[in-house]
Specification:
Blueprint: H1 8-47, H2 52-76, H3 85-92, H4 100-116, H5 124-140, H6 146-165, H7 168-178, H8 187-208, H9 226-255, H10 263-279, H11 290-296, H12 301-320, H13 328-349, H14 355-374, H15 377-388, H16 394-410, H17 416-427
Helix pairs in contact: 1-4, 1-5, 1-6, 1-8, 2-4, 2-10, 3-6, 3-17, 4-5, 5-6, 6-7, 6-8, 7-8, 7-15, 9-12, 9-14, 9-16, 11-13, 12-13, 13-14, 14-15, 14-16, 15-16
InterPro entries: Cl-channel_core, ClC
Subcellular location: Membrane
Membrane topology: Multi-pass membrane protein
């Protein structure tokens, strides 16, 4: 009977399902490896007691690890530096080469060294890039059309994000908002992204048994406080524009160093990170484990501002050092610090503000800063909801994300991955397109 015969759609969806399963397993293995290395590194530091010895050992190990990650990237796959999202978008536009074997090796082992050293980088960048490269490997083993090929790349990237944060819905929306210029919207490709995201998150949850990774317990906040959250969004919009500008500037600064000496910034960044791991550990790592502790703590405004500045500078120099790592997780932790500083200051001025408002500022700030930098406000809202489980704050987060995105737009800011792709193409001697933010999302073929 005809309706029992598997058609081309079914075969394509099987490929997407396989991508999701493979990426879920690969991402879980990567995350487990990072946690294993960092836990044993922490145990070593603790065993050295106090004094100068633990500082010397930590500086040496982190410095060596970051240089090792840099050399792995440079010698195996230079395009594996950073998050890789711009590389995926460039590949979908046909402007960037895809060497999936080399990227998987460099991203996995370079990422283990970089993240295990304590750099202010997130694991989601490597998993997104490795997810797309896994899909590329599968696409090359099969005869697929260019459109289906792009669809599988997007499905792999979405699966990587879903696995990193256990956030499949945000991963799906990320493809819609972030790759709206490159993604070939059709029923087949759209469903492939959904299938891969669901299965990747399911594999990760089954293997790790985790729920919302940044769980925050908070109740509803009064409607009148939305005015303050809108003001917070304006501040975050400006901060997001500045973050994007500063990241490109620091990367360009490092690019001016002679080729044979570019390992020196990696050594310096790693060494400083090693010292901070002992002196001020909250200023290191991607910050996934930091968020919940910050929300439940009672840091003062000055301490939160200092932590915001340290983590802000940390991600700029960590990313620019040329090792694998993402900016999503650091952005969330920076936003948490800034949001808590805003909420704490508001509570000091208006004593009627309670801990729920302070926590609401932290959660809303995560989405607002993400929306201002990446310019994907809907992804910001959904990602924060899936990460924190704070569904009572959907409206406050919407308010903050909207005002942050509008502020960034009116300040002339542009999406960070668009700028990173343009920079990559420029360094490769290509003339990048000048896209507009009004590129339509073509859903008519779904």
């Amino acid at each position: 009977m005809k309706f029992l015969s598997p058609g081309p759609d079914a075969a394509y969806f099987v490929k997407a399902a396989l991508v999701g399963l493979l990426v879920g397993g690969l991402a879980t293995g990567f995350h487990t490896g990072v946690e294993f290395l960092f836990a044993h590194y922490g145990a070593l530091r603790a065993s050295l007691g106090t004094g100068l010895l633990p500082y010397a050992v930590s500086i040496a190990i982190s410095g060596a690890a970051v240089v090792g990650a840099f050399l792995v990237v440079q010698r195996v796959a230079p395009e594996a530096a950073g998050s890789g999202i711009q590389e995926i978008e460039g590949a979908m536009e046909g402007k960037r080469p895809v060497h999936w074997t080399r990227v998987l090796i460099a991203k996995f082992f370079g990422g283990l060294l970089a993240l295990g050293s304590g750099l202010v980088l997130g694991r989601e960048g490597p998993t997104i890039h490795m997810g797309a490269m896994t899909a590329e490997a599968l696409a090359r083993s099969q005869d697929v059309s260019p459109s289906d090929h792009k669809g599988l790349l997007a499905a792999g990237a979405a699966a990587g994000l879903a696995a990193a944060f256990n956030a499949p819905l945000a991963a799906i929306l990320f493809i819609i908002e972030e790759t709206r210029r490159q993604f070939p919207f059709s029923y087949r490709t759209y469903m492939a992204v959904i299938i891969a995201s669901i299965l990747s998150a399911a594999v990760t949850e089954k293997l790790t048994h985790i729920g919302p990774p940044l769980l925050v317990e908070v109740s509803y906040v009064p409607i009148w406080s939305f005015v303050l959250l809108g003001i917070l969004g304006i501040f975050l919009g400006a901060l997001g524009v500045f973050f994007n500008w500063a990241l490109i500037e620091v990367m360009d600064l490092f690019q001016k160093i002679r080729v044979g000496l570019r390992w020196l910034p990696a050594l310096a960044v790693g060494g400083i990170t090693g010292a901070l791991l002992i002196a001020f550990p909250d200023a290191t790592t991607g910050g996934e484990d930091l968020v919940h502790g910050l929300v439940t703590s009672h840091y003062g405004v000055l301490a939160l501002v200092l932590l915001t500045l340290l983590r802000f500078g940390g991600v700029l120099f960590s990313y620019a050092s040329g090792v694998p790592g993402g900016i999503f997780a650091p952005m969330l932790s920076i936003a948490t610090c800034a949001g808590l500083a805003f909420g704490t200051a508001a509570a000091e001025i208006m004593p009627m503000m309670d801990d729920d408002f302070r926590a609401a500022c932290a959660v809303a700030a995560m989405g607002g800063f993400f929306a201002a930098s990446v310019r994907a406000p809907l992804v910001g809202v959904v990602l924060v909801m899936e990460l924190t489980g704070a569904y009572a704050l959907i409206m406050p987060v919407l308010v903050t994300c909207t005002t942050a995105s509008l502020t960034a737009h009116h300040l002339g800011g542009r999406p960070i991955y668009e700028q990173l792709l343009e920079r990559t193409l420029r360094l490769a001697g290509q003339v990048p397109d000048k896209p507009t933010e009004d590129t339509p999302i073509q859903l008519g073929t779904l």
